[in-house]
Amino acid sequence: MASPLADTIRPQSLDEVVGQTHLIGEGKPLRRIIESGKIPNMIFYGPSGTGKTTVARIIAENTNMSLHKLNGTSASVADIKDVISEVGTFAATDGILLYLDEIQYFNKKQQQSLLEYIESGDITLIASTTENPYFAVFNAVISRSTVFEFKPPESADIEKAVRRAFERLSEQNNTDYEVSDEIIRHIAVSCGGDVRKAVNTVELTALSGDITPDGVRVTMESAKLLSQRSNMKYDRDGDQHYDNLSALQKSIRGSDENAALHYAARLMAAGDIISLSRRLLVIASEDVGLAYPNAVTIVKSCVDSAMQLGLPEARIPLAQAVVLLATAPKSNSVYEAINMAMEDVNNGLAVDFPRCLQNKHFDGEDAEVKGQFYKYPHAYPNHWVEQQYMPDALKGKVYYNYGDNKQEQMAKAYWDKIKGEK
Question: How far is CA 258 from CA 255, 307, 347, in A?
Fold first, then answer.
């Protein structure tokens, strides 16, 4: 069986790796470490197809250590014991290098079984993961390793890999491939920063190309068809999901409706209108709040419409909610107020109640002053009368501060006048 093109053109040196110049460019930290020959325990973190496995293999193949490769999806405790059994043997006189791909799939017990050996230096660990290692990897392993973050390459860098892939195919198949610069750019952009996807798309477009007397002509039609959803990196339980929701909320909070629509579109393209709807409902109160109180009602109506319609029509009311929230005035006064109130409650300050607020109308024999003395605000001018509402321990505490928007300042002016405050 022929190997996939992505494997046959895998870079053999750091200079051939696409992107990651912030790590392996000339004079950059990871490159210097690799060139020193003294390899520490390392964890490579980043999306699929960004070169984590490739760089790890280049490091492994350029050392004199005994190399072992395991994958977290399939390796067992027995596999780990086989690696450990080499410690101190003639076969591992220069040490053992364990390359562990997808370490996030190792459970706590499996990760802990390596601790003693990576701490002593008997085993050097190079692990890779697509999930945030600070959540997916056992803390003791993290503390004994250096984390390097791999980032999606720019499309201009991926174009180089696409051209190299077509050239390798031409050599392998002894066939000329007619492919335009426009098609190469399209493949590079549509892969969403995943070099492996780009190379796989090259292989598929070559197989589906039009046969001509001079070779094979790759068409834009097939390139678009084969790469139309390849840029969707989405996992409802992974970092991409939460990064997307975070980017959406921060774009709305920053009043950038165009960026907000982009991140909303990503969620809808993945079919995840539930997460989008829930986040929009939160934003209406957290970030718009009392600056535009009706936003909650409008967003709820848009969400209800979306749920009844389903995709693709749901995109319209949800987009309406996104633009409304992004262009609305902003206030987080209520969000800050309830956070401070919750902090006091959680710190044990939810102890008593002012006597006038209690749901009882009699006093025990030990009460020094008998009587509830509750004043009914509606019986007073402007439906307000001064009395203590806060518990004694929090008397005078202020949680809510009026926002500087028109809506809240109008409310402030109203109550300042009634309460006689300035």
Answer: 9, 23, 41
